[in-house]
Amino acid sequence: MKFAIASDHRGVQVKSRLSDLLTRMGHEVVDYGPKDAGESVDYPDFASKVAKDVSEKKVERGILICGTGIGMCITANKFPGVRAADCHDDLTAEMSRRHNDANVMCLSADLLADNVVNRMVEIWARTEFEGGRHARRVEKIQQIESEYRS
Fold it and tell me: Is 134 a residue of the active site?
């Protein structure tokens, strides 16, 4: 699977670690930066790069990291077809995929332990969308999105 990944200055170290993890899992990773945490950057600039590629289906999934994950999630969800979820534990990681077909995972660099983040990404990367009644709900989200984008 092809992943796009980005962070703000708070998430640079987590991003680097997750890029390595995904590569070891056999995935292709495109890193949209930033390269170092030395200078403060604005999370919308980096979230939009990942969300755009997910929206345009250039990558299958994206991962975004900032201080809380919230700003990245808000930004990513502005793009058509993006279903970004701010995940904070194993259950939200799994259910965002299983029930919501989330294609962007947003994470906190400041509030989650490294082992928790690693486990969540492993779960999220391997969990498939359940479909069924959940597909109907995701279709309704897409209908709402298309109504308000026109």
Answer: no
Catalytic residue among 9, 27, 88, 99: 99
* Residue 99 is a catalytic residue: yes
Whole-model pTM above 0.90?
A: yes
pLDDT tens digits, residue range 87-139?
999 999 999 999 999 999 999 999 999 999 999 999 999 999 999 999 999 99
Q: Are 128 and 98 in contact (CB under 8 A)?
A: yes
Domain containing 97: what range?
Answer: 2-149
The burial of 120, by beta-carbon neighbours within 10 Å (0-12 exposed, 13-18 middle, 19 or more buried), is given as buried
The confidence score (pLDDT) of residue 150 equals 58
Residue from 100, 105, 109, 108 nearest 132 by CA:
100
Query: 125-139 pLDDT, tens per residue?
Result: 999 999 999 999 999
Helices of type H across the chain: 12-24, 43-55, 70-76, 90-98, 114-126, 133-149
Residue of 9, 66, 73, 106 with catalytic role: 66
Structural domain total, the chain: 1
Q: What is the CATH number of the domain that holds 11?
A: 3.40.1400.10
